[in-house]
Amino acid sequence: MHRSWWFILLWLISVAFALWGAERNGSVAWSVAYLLTGIVVISFLWSWFNLRWVRIGRFTRSRRSQVGRVAEEQFEVVNSGRLPKLWLEVRDYSELPQHDASRVLSSIGPRRRRRWVVRTYCLRRGRFRLGPLTLASSDPLGLFPRQRQLTTTSTLIVYPATLELPGFSPPMGLLPGGDAMRRRTHYVTTNVSTVRDYVPGDSFNRIHWRSTARTGRMMVKEFELDPTADVWIVLDLDQAVHTGSAWTPPVGDGGAAILRPERLSLYLPPSTIEYAVTAAASLARHFLLEDRSVGFIAHSGHRELIQADRGERQLTKILETLAVVNATGRIPFARVLTSEMEHLPRHTTLLAISPATDRSWVAAMRDIRRRGVHNLAVLLAANSFGDGPPHRETLAELLASGIPTHLLSYGQDISTALSQRVTALD
């Protein structure tokens, strides 16, 4: 039974004793009854007023973060009443791992506010809920605890880590110029296809002054993409080939997540899907920074397709997709490659990322190359992440097929692995 009920029971007994024993020792009994009555009333009012005229707000600097970076939130509790608050407890029920935002605040004066900042080192990618909050308080004796639910929530998306790849260089001839792409683009390139009438929103550097002078109305240039080959990243999400083992996130002395900018690969879980996603994100960023047109394909529970494009917005699309994908697919990687790459034009570049040891996907890569599509493979050594099968025969098949290959093992720095191509079996 809660202590408040024990106290109320004691108060009722004191009142009954005062009524029953009023003739013999009435003054003492009634004094005790009055005292307990006053304590009950004051404690109840204290608890009730302690949650009144209190506002709490949470302010997120950005709704996006990244593995290896810090997500920051600021909280503010405002006492807008005329009475001080003895203590308030803010309980946070966010889903973000290691996000310890709950606080116990004491002695908040009238018309005062209390702020604190929570910085969380992001260790896992994904989409996480921030909130809800519960505001709790009580009287000094703890007789009447009270709570107030604040159901407002928001979402924080944590992108996978993207690593610098200064040593990554595809083999000569892997990224040829390609054929001119007859597709309109909002980018300003060197390939002008035609002119058209000006519409609001067109930048002034697109205006074609000779056509404007000749027609008497404002004309702008229409551009085509540069004649460069698209890069397609295909990620294997077949649940039958991915593996991993248990992982405990690194913590500091106080139990909170480590807050120092170490090499991110050291903090990745021993899971092939996490290494594969990080490699895909890093490669996408690398090519987009080189102004290449990058697309993305994966089959998880459903088909993930991002058409090839350039720029920062394209990187955001790919990272948002990679933040939430998991190895839940049931389609073998060879079938994914065969079906998705069938209609790619010549001189396109394919980057295949997989831990699969089934050599049928290597045969699919050879067939794709015969159609004029250049390819490169990133093979994850599944047996280094747990109980996965050995990768040696698959690696030998890739090398024998003349497919440029990078081997990625658990604990290996991803930047280093993607900067060194495998040329022979150890």
Total DSSP E strands:
19
Shape: elongated
**For the CA atoms, what is the radius of gyration?**
32 Å
Write down the secondary-structure element order: HHEEEEEEEEEEEEHEEHEEHHEHEHEH
First and last CA, distance: 70 Å
- Biggest sheet details: 6 strands, mixed
Uncertain regions spanning at least 5 consecutive residues? 178-185, 253-265
Query: Which structural class do the helices and strands define?
Result: alpha/beta
- CATH fold node name of the largest domain: Rossmann fold
Description:
With 426 residues, the chain is of the alpha/beta class. It has three domains: 54-159, Immunoglobulins (Immunoglobulin-like, Sandwich); 184-224, no CATH class; 231-417, Rossmann fold. The protein is 28% helix and 27% strand. It has nine helices and 19 strands. The chain has helices at 3-20, 22-50, 209-215, 272-289, 311-324, 333-340, 360-370, 392-400, 414-417; strands at residues 54-60, 64-66, 70-79, 85-92, 103-108, 112-121, 126-130, 133-137, 146-150, 154-159, 184-185, 191-197, 219-224, 231-235, 294-299, 303-309, 349-354, 374-380, 405-408. The relative contact order is 0.11.
